[in-house]
């Protein structure tokens, strides 16, 4: 494998720094930890992430840089795919391996057919109760803060959707189920693991979690934080530009007059269907626009 090296000056603020980096988040780090590392590496305070991953989880974490941070409203709605492992027979207070055991229950003999039938029953829209150890706010306070204080609080269920789910492995010896699920925004895999265990007439917790895909961003294209910190990649090998992210969107080419209007936020008449469009002036990509009711509105300008 060819290794590239670059100097810190290659990461000058504002220089080719508008877009997304797909990081393979390691276990033990929060999503914000990764943001802070990228800010330091890129010498840029304008960095965020899209789709929080718990410290226990690993996998795809889209990091938004520069004007790429404005893409969050589009990327956050994307489908996500996870590979999760449930350990049956034990329930933990946090819903994952980091919490203390609060209940044990016998695991009856199970066949792969029985497990497949149960997990496939979760496909579709449904209400899911988020775990108490989560960052959801109630009355201005995060749920995990109530949990740490031992305060009981009512948690309202939320609508989620499971698009697909399939069994990958059942270890009768370890009493562990590994499955792959593609789901909507707001789905808590810890809760899903517990619900699956309940349907199998036992209890369980999420032992491991890997996010393998966020829309078109896959774990195969993700890079490790070590690679970035060691400066082992060129900037051009890391950044996915805003133009590339919206490669499937249609193009609109503006003349000089409408280009100036567009930059100043003037609504332009365009006979196109509603949606997001890539905007060009003199064959150069200048940003994104949104059309609604045949009116083009400026969205992101590079």
Summarize the structure.
With 302 residues, the protein is of the alpha+beta class.
Description:
By secondary structure, the chain is α+β, with helices and mostly antiparallel strands. The chain folds into three domains: 96 residues, Pseudouridine synthase, CATH 3.30.2350; 135 residues, Pseudouridine synthase, CATH 3.30.2350; 56 residues, Archaeosine Trna-guanine Transglycosylase, Chain: A, domain 4. It is 21% helix and 36% strand. It is built from nine helices and 19 strands. Strands 1, 2, 3, 4, 7, 10, 11, 12, 13 and 14 form a ten-stranded mixed β-sheet that branches. A five-stranded mixed β-sheet has the order 15-17-18-19-16. Strands 5-6 form a two-stranded antiparallel sheet. A hairpin with a 2-residue loop joins β17 and β18. It is elongated, with a radius of gyration of 23 Å. 31% of the residues are buried. The N terminus is likely disordered.
- Our count of helices gives 9
Number of DSSP E strands = 19
Rg is: 23 Å
CATH class of the largest domain: Alpha Beta
Residue-averaged pLDDT: 89
State the helicity in percent bands.
10-25%
Order of helices and strands: EHEEHEEEHEEEHEEHEEHHEHEHEEEE
Judged by helices, strands and strand pairing, the structural class is: alpha+beta
Measured by DSSP, the beta-strand proportion falls in: 35-45%
The shape is elongated
Tally of distinct domains? 3
Shape-level CATH architecture of the largest domain: 2-Layer Sandwich
Largest sheet: 10 strands, mixed
Annotated CATH topology of the largest domain: Pseudouridine synthase
């Amino acid at each position: 494998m060819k290794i590239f090296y670059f100097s810190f000056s290659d990461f000058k603020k504002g220089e080719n720094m508008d877009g997304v980096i797909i990081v393979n988040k390691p276990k033990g780090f929060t999503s914000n930890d990764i943001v802070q590392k990228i800010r330091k590496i890129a010498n840029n305070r304008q960095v965020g992430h899209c789709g929080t991953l718990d410290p226990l989880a690993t996998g795809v974490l889209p990091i938004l840089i520069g004007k790429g941070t404005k893409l969050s409203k589009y990327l956050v709605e994307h489908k996500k795919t996870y590979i999760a492992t449930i350990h049956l027979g034990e329930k933990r207070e946090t819903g994952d391996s980091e919490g203390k055991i609060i209940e044990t229950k016998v695991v009856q003999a199970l066949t792969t057919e029985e497990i497949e039938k149960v997990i496939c029953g979760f496909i579709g829209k449904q209400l899911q109760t988020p775990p108490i150890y989560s960052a959801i706010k109630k009355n201005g306070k995060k749920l995990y803060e109530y949990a740490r204080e031992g305060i009981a609080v009512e948690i309202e269920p939320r609508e989620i959707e499971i698009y697909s789910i399939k069994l990958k492995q059942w270890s009768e010896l370890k009493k562990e189920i590994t499955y792959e699920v593609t789901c909507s925004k707001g789905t808590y895999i810890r809760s899903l693991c517990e619900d699956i265990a309940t349907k199998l007439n036992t209890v369980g917790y999420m032992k491991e979690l890997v996010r393998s895909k966020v829309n078109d961003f896959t774990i195969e294209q993700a890079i490790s934080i070590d690679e970035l910190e060691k400066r082992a990649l060129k900037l051009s090998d890391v950044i996915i530009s805003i133009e590339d992210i919206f490669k499937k969107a249609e193009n609109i080419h503006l003349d000089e007059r409408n280009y100036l209007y567009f930059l100043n936020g003037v609504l332009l008449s365009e006979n196109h269907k509603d949606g997001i469009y890539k905007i060009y002036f003199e064959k150069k990509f200048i940003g994104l626009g949104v059309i609604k009711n045949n009116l083009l509105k400026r969205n992101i300008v590079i």
